[in-house]
Amino acid sequence: MKLVLYSGGTEDENRFLNLRALELTHVKSPKLTLIPSSSYDAENDFKFFVQEFSEFGVQRFMLFCVDTPYTKTLLQEVLKSDLIFLGGGNTFYFLKHLKKAGMFAHFDKFLKRGGVLCGLSAGAIILTPHVHTASFPHFDRDENPWDMKNLSAMRLVKFEFFPHYKNSKRYDAELLHHSKKSKIPLYGCSDGGGIIIDGDQISFVGKCFQFYSGKKLSLVINKLTLRTEAHS
Question: What SS3 string covers the chain?
Answer without folding.
Answer: CEEEEECCCCCCCCHHHHHHHHHHHCCCCCEEEEECCCCCCHHHHHHHHHHHHHCCCCCEEEECCCCCCCCHHHHHHHCCCCEEEECCCCHHHHHHHHHHCCHHHHHHHHHHCCCEEEEECHHHHCCCCECHHHHCCCCCCCCCCCCCCCCECCCCCCCEEECCCCCCHHHHHHHHHHHHHCCCCEEEECCCCEEEEECCEEEEECCEEEEECCEEEEEECCCCCCCEECCC
